[in-house]
Amino acid sequence: MSSEPTSSSTDPGRHRRPEGRGLAALRPMTLRTGAMKFAEGSAQIDLGDTRVLVAATVEPKVPRFRADSGLGWVTAEYSMLPRATHSRSGREVQRGRPGGRTMEIQRLIGRSLRASVDFAALGEHTVTLDCDVLQADGGTRTASITAAYVALVEAMGKAFLAGDLVRWPIEQQVAAVSVGIVDGTPLLDLEYCEDSVAEVDLNVVATLDGELIEVQGTGEQRSFRRQELDDLLDLAMEGIRQLGELQNAALAPMLEDVQALQQRGRRRAKPRDEKELWGAP
Asked: Could you tell me what percent of the chain has a pLDDT over 70?
């Protein structure tokens, strides 16, 4: 990927999608697990020039409202490096609290990933997903969700294979993508120069089974018709299908081990009688 500076136009009449990239195609993408040494699960996604690093931390505790319930919890935090964008933004820690946009995005990520988990199988554990935007060129919240699912599954896989979880806690595969209308044309996976001039803009979170988790839609420059919404949702679901394939490819070794353990079951040690423990009287 080129590290050369890029420029974008704010003039809709000058906007053009790069040649070779279809209207229903994702940007060039890499998604890998094991991006961090110490985290229970981690993933880095490079989607076009957007780069997000996600770490999953598993702790044997739950929020107070979950105490003694036998149920686990999944939450998320989101932040952006000061020079992730065209100009430097101040660190939110200097302001003493996260901004409204940050709070909204991390709540979206948490809601999205909670839709994939069986909390009873997770038990009284909390999984925290830390999503850090290294570089932003459109679609940071949706890229965070897509990578967070991979980090979550890696963390759950390690815990399940180690025997810390009795049952596999992942119920549904989740991914997210942006879609929009630019110059009257529906587009998938908007980069910044497209998103900044979009007439209509949607962020869609869904399962790979085709169930919607959240749709954030805005008529940025005009209102839009029901048929346009349906067309954008169809486009988003195609993008989520493609993202799901990439997620599964990144997780394939882990999922194969999990499936093998589920099929053979865990070996249980034969109970020993008192003679084996203490010797003959």
From this structure: 85
